[in-house]
Amino acid sequence: MRVLYSTDPVAEKERFRRWRETIIERVMPLEISEVGPGPFSGRIEAAQVGALTVNRITTSGIRTELTSAAIRRSEIGSTITVALQISGAMTFSQADREATTARGDLVVLDRQPSSILTPEGGQGLFIEIPQERLERVIGPAKLYSRTRIPAEQATTQLAVRYFHQLLEVHRRMEARQAERMGSIGVDMLIASIAERLTQDVPRALHGTVVVQRAKAQIEDTLHDPALSPSDLAAAVGVSLRRLQELFHERGQNISDYIWERRLTVAAQRLREPHAAQMPIGLLAYACGFTSQAHFSRRFKDRYGASPREFRMDAFQRTLRSATG
Prior knowledge:
By secondary structure, this protein is an alpha+beta fold. 50% of the residues lie in helices and 21% in strands. The model has no long low-confidence stretch (mean pLDDT 87).
């Protein structure tokens, strides 16, 4: 990883002040105070793996507070931080929720006023993942922020090992490969968080988590014509009957939802100018339909026009808009 800042070359009596100034200037206007004895030391290292930003922070004892004012003044994007404890311990506090992590634990940090207490010698890996991607699968982060995801979980162990190894080799990867490997890492983190949530969340919230995971699985496998409700239930770890019940509670049917998503995605692609030359049959197969005739029939039932007519109408609308 690339060293962004280290207090090593700074005189001992100036280290904490310089650290605080650097964090405020380069990261965000946090409130930082010393809590440990002895001379302060700190180091920030960073890596970019595809679209993922990963920071490794090592410090002496400090307390870091994210205030409402800091959140308003910062330019944080639409990401959620997953913290991985490498060594030492950290205590993450927010309102009435608190989690103390040990080596190998994970914790989710959303953008709310909170504090982090880092005892002497604490080191953590902070991974920025897309908020929309996380919440599409397991719901709003505020429901599980500051929940400790233990190192004892098999999925947590896999995710931790994966990121340690990924950070060792990512510089040797081509951009597209790094993007893909980073995406796999996000999936592993989400799987670990989801497993933790299923252990003690209320039944109503558990049902919401399961449905959101099922819908995310549908999005990822929409192109597969063999996708079925039974396969979907197996993928999210519940019985088919239970998954059907959860969809019905939300006024939906699993099969109907799958077909609706396929038709919606197909319509979006038919509107896209860069896909204007894609054969209708190829587009149909890419959306999980087994034949062009089947696709055309269902598409016309849904949109009142054939795929070809729909594409032409979208093209003409775009042309009229461009010309004025």
